Amino acid sequence: MALLQIAEPGQSAVPHQRKLAVGIDLGTTNSLVASVVSGQAVTFADENNEHLLPSVVGYYSDGIQVGQKAKLAASSDPSNTVMSVKRLLGRNLEDIRTRYPNLPYNFTDSQGGSLSLTVRDNLVNPVQVSAEILKTLGQRAEKTLGDELKGAVITVPAYFDDAQRQGTKDAAQLAGLNVLRLLNEPTAAAIAYGLDSGQEGVIAIYDLGGGTFDISILRLSKGVFEVLATGGNSSLGGDDFDDILVDHIKQQAELNEQVSNELQRTLLDIAKDAKERLSVDAAADIQFTDDAGMQHQLTLSCIKFEKLIEPLIKETLRSCRRAMKDAEVDNEDVLEVVMVGGSTRVPAVRDKVGDFFGKTPLTSIDPDKVVAVGAAIQADILVGNKPDNDMLLLDVLPLSLGIETMGGLVEKIIHRNTTIPVAKAQEFTTFKDGQTAMKVHVLQGERELVEDCRSLANFTLHGIPPMAAGAAHIRVTFQVDADGLLHVTAMEKSSGVHADIQVKPSYGLEESEITEMLMSSMQHAKDDMQARMLKEQQVESARVEEALRAALAADGEALLSEQERAELEQALQSMLDAAKGNDAEAIKSAIEQVDIASQEFANRRMDRSINLALSGQSVEQL
Amino acid sequence: MGIKVSDAAAQRAQSFLVNRGKGIGLRLGVKTTGCSGLAYVLEFVDELNPDDEVFEDNGVKIIIDGKSLVYLDGTQLDFTKEGLNEGFQFNNPNANGECGCGESFNV
Q: Which residues of B touch A7 (CB under 8 A)?
């Protein structure tokens, strides 16, 4: 006998066609799965009644273990136990070495800059490891619901870039899940608190998880969420609290910086445990044995702990301030502040955030579960279990997207904070006569120069019919879907030749901190503008030179006296000299000089071509 | 004969209704679909239809339309757990055949 759940009025499913969908919070430290059952969004527990699945995957001689078992084995077998894999998604090796020098894994840099780990003589990549976690949650949900899943909504930090989002989707696919939508974690949290049916206004979501910090400023109007701004730090979270504590413990115990992998892992477990106890107690006792077999005993006070983590909390508040500025709202405009992520259990975090926004944050839903619950509600709607599907989610792009143009400049096609899904097109042209191919370099970032932005993809449009420079019309279209994934197409309009690219995991690319990128774009706004002007003038000077040389080669001898020619050459040379310098204004005036000097020549060429066209023809024939 | 609601089912139904924030009770019904002829319907009720009959047992209002009542009279609504899976169950004296999965039945 199948067990039934209560459906919304008129929404009862035909047998064997129940539309089961789950929300999955794929977290750095812990992951959860939830679904709407009899009108109620609940997270699912495993056989031991544990809702949180530690995001830990172990590769052992007796097979792959996911969750608690792997977490317990982590201390004894650190190099075959992968923790916090979410941090590795979409990252390259160099980046990870500098960012997390203490990770106890054997990394390998495989082709194209993508990253692999050696576990038990096998190579696995972060997508495969994430897939193991998703598979475990999917199976748990199917056991709980008693049927196959139709689809899943998987949450990602608002600041995940294209590579990281694509990595998450690939992992879900590998786990056999049909992804209905990737949903930003903060948006999911707002849905969980039912803020979609509450008072209209601005909502701030402060999400301090294990590995990421996100601040999102949403505006709710007429039941629609619009993300006004997102900010944060994709490498700041509870794990950093732990790392700071580990360093502190090492210092107190007078240990070396370098300890064995096993001791490092043990200390990390001790630090995590102490942190959790300090959310309740005023002090925590710590005991461990070091590599030399010596016993250590320490006491950590809550006050000391708060002092240690204060710089991290301040860092999150700086992000909050920036996001508020981006959203163009003041602190008093904020109606509600939602707390998400296990690290918001730390009383000091709650207090400081409350002080910053001048409002007591919402904490009634378990901060570990709130994102999964929201995702489940969204999944239930997307799969079609609600009679009136009126909730629409608008998300925004965290960074501008554009392409490289001549001179190493970035032409932005879609600006940051544009709501997605979105498609925008812009026309470009060729730079040289007879140019038959164009390289399209897709970039992400706020700065004016290519070298300061993040490279996402490269492709070349071939087969442009040979034409004069500037005559080709090449339409470049940027399309960002609801999951935040980018698709770029370039098409030459007269011939219809086109090339396109889906921005796939760009693991090998340099990862720059998004917040840093935003900050530097503000700091360098003036420099960037000057650099852009300079580059533009340099490109223009190169174009003038090219055109003038072509004209001189064709008609110089016939139309100009030696002296005129020398004068023109001289003007050209001084323009080229100016273009080597850094003074945009000087280049501009030199270009104008060349323009004046070549005017007579241009007139003669014009006359000559008219004469040529007219010669031998009578007025009547025209 | 009417409809019975077990203690476990009543408790769950109440909590789901409270959580949902609206609804006067549960609709039990049958639909002519499925591999074995008829399928059960279990829904929240916000509005009554003209041919609905309302029963109450164990503090829960059960709403059944006239046509479905013929097939359901004497049914006990229960809530059970099978491993991780849990949900409502119809103990229907009128049913004399179920498909393998139990999602549909005939009388």
A: 41-44
